[in-house]
Specification:
By secondary structure, the chain is α/β, with parallel strands linked by helices. It has one domain. The chain is 15% helix and 30% strand. It has three helices and seven strands. Strands 1, 2, 3, 4, 5, 6 and 7 form a seven-stranded mixed sheet that branches. Strand 5 and strand 6 form a beta hairpin. The longest helix has 12 residues.
Length: 164
């Protein structure tokens, strides 16, 4: 099933248990949750995703998510553009499988397949690929010296020396 220029409202759900596959998603109108610590979305997301059915319980999502955020440099607080290109290739499984096989760990996206939210999948992929340190590339940016060369402080070293 091809859904050209699909705009999905955040409250909409897809039922992956029924329907024709593959489901192709070209566009997506998203407003990120306030609890995510992402910058300000500069441009609308460019999304090209395809969801295909492998079995009754396992689906695969392939495609690309492109985004551009404005974030503050962590050194000098100037605005920095953070461009993300996420090449997505992940397995989608039902949350029931997660509860049944809790001892197995893999890199799958778990959601209720009957009430599947594209927004959650996109947010998760962006958050997993968003850089943890944001720094600008300008020469006048504040530089901090590396702390890796400092000697490790051992507070009980004198006591150890007395015991020996």
């Amino acid at each position: 099933m091809y859904l050209p220029n699909l705009w999905i409202n955040m409250s909409d759900y897809l039922n992956l248990r029924e329907g024709k596959f593959p489901i192709k998603i070209d566009k997506f109108d998203i407003k990120f949750s306030d609890d995510l610590s992402l910058g300000i979305l500069k441009n609308p997301l460019i999304i090209n995703l395809s969801i295909d059915k492998l079995s009754s319980e396992i689906f695969i999502c392939k495609g690309i998510i492109k985004s551009s955020f404005i974030e503050s440099c962590q050194n000098c607080l100037k605005d920095v553009e953070v461009k993300l290109i996420v090449d997505t290739n992940l397995v989608i499984k039902d949350t029931d499988i997660l509860l049944d096989k809790s001892n197995e760990s893999d890199e799958s996206h778990y959601q209720n397949l009957k009430y599947f939210q594209i927004k959650k999948l996109i947010e998760e992929e962006i958050c997993l690929n968003y850089p943890s340190v944001i720094r600008c590339e300008e020469q006048d940016c504040i530089k901090f010296k590396e702390t890796s060369n400092e000697k490790k402080i051992q507070p009980f070293q004198k006591i150890r020396d007395l015991i020996e």
